[in-house]
Design goal:
Blueprint: H1 2-34, H2 36-39, H3 46-82, H4 85-91, H5 96-138, E1 151-153, E2 156-163, E3 170-177, E4 187-198, E5 204-217, H6 228-231, E6 234-247, H7 269-303, H8 307-315, H9 319-385, H10 392-417, H11 422-445, H12 453-468
Antiparallel strand pairs: 1-2, 2-3, 3-4, 4-5, 5-6
Helix pairs in contact: 1-3, 1-5, 3-5, 3-9, 3-10, 5-9, 7-9, 9-10, 9-11, 10-11
C-alpha cells in the first residue's frame, strides 16, 4: 500500500507543479492585459516592472491553485486509466478512494495553506499592487490623454486635437470643469498648447496652458436666450499663460498606502469581522436616532393643542403673519426631510460596506473548499474518461473553470447588490460544483462508462450513420 501511495503522489506532484505555473502565467497575462493601457509608454524601469510582476503573481496565486489541482488530478487519473493502471489497482482489491487517500490529504494541506495565504499575504499584496499601479497611472499623465477624445481626469474632461510625443505638448486643448455639481458644464477653457505634469511635492497635477480663453458661467437658468441681467453672470478671460492644479486623487484608492486600509481587499479575516461589527453598530445607531426623533415628534403632536384651537389662532393672525408661519413650517419640514435623506444615505453606504466585507470573508472561506471539490471532480473525471496528457483534460478543465468563474462572479455581484443573501451568492458556485463532484465520484466508484471517450465517439458515429441514411 505504501508503494501505491508513493506512486500516486509522484504521479500527481509533477503535473501539479507544471500546471500551477502554467495557470499562474495565464492568469498573470490576464491582469497585465487589463492594465496594458496604463503601462504602455510609461518608460518604467526594471525594478518597477519586477515589483509589479511580483505583486501580480501573489494576487493570482490563490486562483491558480484550484485550477492547477483540477488539471493535475485530471491528468494523473486520466493517465492511470489510459495505461490500465487503475484497472490493475482495482483488480488487486484496492478501491479508488483508498488510492486517492494520500492525494486527498495533500489537497487538504494545500487548501489550508491557500486560506492562510489569502488571509495574510493577499491583503498586503493587494495594498502594494494598487498603490504601485496608481503611481504608474499618475506618472506622465499626458500619456493618458488620447487624441480627439475626451479623457476624464479628476473633475475635468480634457480633449486634445494633437499630441506631440517628443515634447509632451497637447495642442488645441479643450477643458471642461465639472467641479460645480449644480452646473457641471459652466466653466470651459480653450488653449492652443498645454502641458501636463505631476507635482512631486503634492498629489496634484499641474496644467500649464498658453494662449487661451476661459469661459465662466454663473447664471442660474439654462435658457438659450438670456436677459440683460443674466448676461452679467457670464465672464470671458483671455490669457497668454495660465497654470491650473487638478486634484488627481483616486476616489477609491489613495496614493498613500494608509488610505487603502479601508478597502475590503486589504484586510484579513479578523479585520473584516471587526469592521462588519462596527458598521452594524453604526447602522443601529442611525435607526435608533430616527426612531427616537419620530417618537418625540409623535408625542409632541399628541400634546399639541387641538385642531380647532390651532385654526382659531391662525385666523386671528394677519396675512403676513400667516405667510411667515407657513414658510417657517415648510422650511422646518424640508430641513427634517433633508436630514432624514442624509441619514438614510449614510445608512445605505454602511450597509453596502458591510455586504462587501461579508462577501470578502466568504470568498476567503470558499477558496479551500473549491480546491478540495476540484480535486474530486478532476480525479473522478480522469478515472471516467481515461485520457491523460494535455489534450482532453485541458479542454474539460477549462470548461469547468469557466463555469465556476461565471457562477462565482454572478453570485458575488448579486450578493453585493443585495439581490441574493451573501451566503447564497458567495457559496453558489461551490454548491453547484459539490453536486457535480458527488455525481462524478459516484460514477467513478461504480466503474461507469458514461463519459468514456470511446463510447462518446461510437455514439457520434452512430448518429452520423443514421443521419446519412
Amino acid at each position: 500500500m505504501k508503494k501505491l501511495h508513493l506512486f500516486t503522489l509522484k504521479s500527481f506532484i509533477g503535473p501539479l507543479i507544471s500546471t500551477f505555473f502554467i495557470s499562474l502565467f495565464v492568469l498573470l497575462m490576464q491582469i497585465l492585459w487589463q492594465y496594458i493601457d496604463i503601462l504602455v509608454g510609461k518608460g518604467l524601469d526594471i525594478a518597477t516592472i519586477s515589483q509589479l510582476l511580483f505583486y501580480s503573481i501573489l494576487q493570482v496565486m490563490p486562483m491558480a491553485l484550484p485550477l492547477a489541482i483540477l488539471l493535475a488530478s485530471l491528468m494523473t487519473f486520466g493517465n492511470m486509466g489510459e495505461n490500465y493502471e487503475l484497472t490493475a489497482i482495482k483488480a488487486s482489491g484496492v478501491s479508488l478512494l483508498k488510492c486517492m487517500k494520500p492525494l486527498i490529504i495533500l489537497t487538504i494541506i494545500l487548501s489550508m495553506a491557500a486560506y492562510a495565504f489569502s488571509d495574510n499575504v493577499m491583503p498586503w499584496a493587494n495594498l502594494k499592487f494598487y498603490s504601485l499601479m496608481y503611481s504608474i497611472k499618475t506618472h506622465q499623465p499626458e500619456l493618458e490623454i488620447k487624441e480627439k477624445e475626451f479623457t476624464k481626469l479628476g473633475n475635468y474632461s480634457i480633449k486634445a486635437e494633437n499630441k506631440n510625443k517628443e515634447s509632451g505638448a497637447l495642442e488645441d486643448l479643450m477643458i471642461y470643469d465639472h467641479s460645480n455639481s449644480n452646473n457641471p458644464g459652466a466653466n470651459t477653457t480653450i488653449a492652443d498648447v498645454g502641458y501636463l505634469k505631476m507635482d512631486e511635492n503634492s498629489n496634484m497635477m499641474r496644467i500649464t496652458l498658453h494662449n487661451g480663453i476661459r469661459y465662466e458661467e454663473n447664471a442660474k437658468n439654462k435658457q438659450s436666450s438670456l436677459t440683460t441681467s443674466d448676461q452679467q453672470f457670464y465672464r470671458r478671460d483671455k490669457f497668454k499663460r495660465q497654470i491650473t492644479l487638478i486634484d488627481f486623487q483616486n476616489k477609491e484608492l489613495n496614493v498613500d498606502e494608509a488610505g487603502y486600509a479601508g478597502h475590503n481587499k486589504m484586510k484579513n479575516y479578523k479585520q473584516l469581522k471587526g469592521d462588519i461589527l462596527k458598521y452594524r453598530k453604526e447602522q443601529n445607531e442611525i435607526v435608533s436616532q430616527i426612531s427616537q426623533r419620530f417618537k418625540h415628534q409623535f408625542e409632541y403632536n399628541n400634546t399639541a393643542p387641538p385642531t380647532p384651537a390651532v385654526n382659531s389662532y391662525i385666523e386671528n393672525q394677519n396675512h403676513r403673519q400667516q405667510l411667515v408661519a407657513i414658510n417657517n413650517a415648510k422650511r422646518k419640514t424640508q430641513e427634517q426631510l433633508l436630514s432624514l435623506k442624509k441619514e438614510l444615505a449614510h445608512h445605505d453606504l454602511l450597509q453596502r460596506k458591510e455586504i462587501s466585507h461579508q462577501v470578502e470573508i466568504n470568498r476567503k472561506l470558499t477558496l479551500p473548499f473549491t480546491c478540495i471539490i476540484f480535486f474530486f471532480i478532476g480525479s473522478s473525471l480522469g478515472a471516467i474518461i481515461r485520457k491523460g496528457g494535455f489534450g482532453m483534460p485541458v479542454v474539460i478543465a477549462i470548461i469547468l473553470f469557466i463555469v465556476f468563474y461565471m457562477l462565482d462572479t454572478f453570485g458575488c455581484n448579486m450578493a453585493k447588490k443585495g439581490a441574493l443573501p451573501v451566503v447564497i451568492g458567495t457559496w453558489l458556485s461551490s454548491a453547484i460544483l459539490l453536486i457535480i463532484a458527488l455525481l462524478l465520484s459516484y460514477q467513478s466508484s461504480t466503474d461507469s462508462s458514461l463519459l468514456n471517450i470511446e463510447n462518446i465517439r461510437d455514439l457520434f458515429r452512430k448518429k452520423l450513420r443514421f443521419g446519412s441514411l
